[in-house]
Amino acid sequence: MALRIYKPTTSAQRFKSGLNFMEITKTGPEKSLIKSQNRASGRSFGKITARGIGGGHKQHFRIIDFKRNKRDIVARVASIEYDPNRTANIALLNYEDGEKRYILAPLGLEVGAKITTSDKTEIKPGNSMPIGKMPIGTVVHNVELIPGAGGAIVRSAGTGAVIAAREGNYVHLKLPSKEVRKVHTSCYATIGQLGNVDWKNISLGKAGRSRHMGRRPKVRGVAMDPASHPHGGGEGKSGTGMNPKTRSGKPAFGKTRRRRKPSSRFILSRRKK
Q: For residue 40, what pLDDT band results from cuts at 50, 70 and 90?
């Protein structure tokens, strides 16, 4: 999906760019696969629990099939659609038994294509199968970490993980962050790189576009007073002092992963900064 560059008719338009939506084949969502969203604007019981969240355009939530648990039933791609809740596009599938489901749309998936989920299927974008039965070098997305629990990682636009090696009951998976992780061979994954690759090159151009997405302005900690943030206070631009911290005083730089986390035994190589 290519970028659309806006004419600099105003100051806001000068650096603004967006997607041209050439891949989108249907504008409205499937009504049977949407539900309303009740947002609390980053608050729980009226108290802010996630700062910087609020406002934004009203949206319907699209129900996505991350589990891909309709096995050995052929589905035809009916449309490629925009999803306001995620960076990747979604594809509407019409199964032979009449059921409809949404999946994340990989790069190269076209309307009319037929895809399946099976223990052994063709290596082509959109098909889903156990990661242990895929050849080494296959690019995958929507990868399960627990068999049967549904895809949990590699779900953002333009991302794809590579099967690097096999070791007993595990597969070595190189993630987009360059981290190498062990995943059980019985975990399902979808073949192909996710589409909407140019999403990362978008320039919002103006603050109002962030507000449409539900992002409120963020104030730097060093600009606050000492009572509001550990970085606050001082004369002039004094910097963070000591080591960077969160608003609650926890370390916010370097290795912040919890020690002795159970899943650490599956990580073979840490992600590169």
A: confident
Classify residue 153: in a domain, yes or no.
yes
Domain count, the chain: 1
Name the nearest CA neighbour of 163 among 127, 139, 146, 189: 139
DSSP string, 75-113: EEEEEEE--TTSSS-EEEEEETTS-EEEEE-BTT--TT-
For residue 248, with 0-12 CB atoms within 10 Å meaning exposed, 13-18 middle and 19 or more buried, which class applies?
exposed
Predicted structure pTM score: 0.91
- As a whole number of angstroms, the distance between CA 105 and CA 87 comes to 11
SS3 266: helix
256 — alpha (psi -120 to 50), left (phi > 0) or beta? Answer: alpha
CATH code of the domain containing 175: 2.40.50.140
CA 259, 261, 266, 272 dihedral sign is: negative
pLDDT the model gives residue 1: 67
How far is the C-alpha of 267 from the C-alpha of 257, rounded, in Å? 12
Residue 229, domain member (yes or no): no
Average pLDDT over the chain reads 94
pLDDT digits (tens, 9 = 90+) for 61-92: 999 999 999 999 999 999 999 999 999 999 99
Enter the DSSP assignment of 45. T
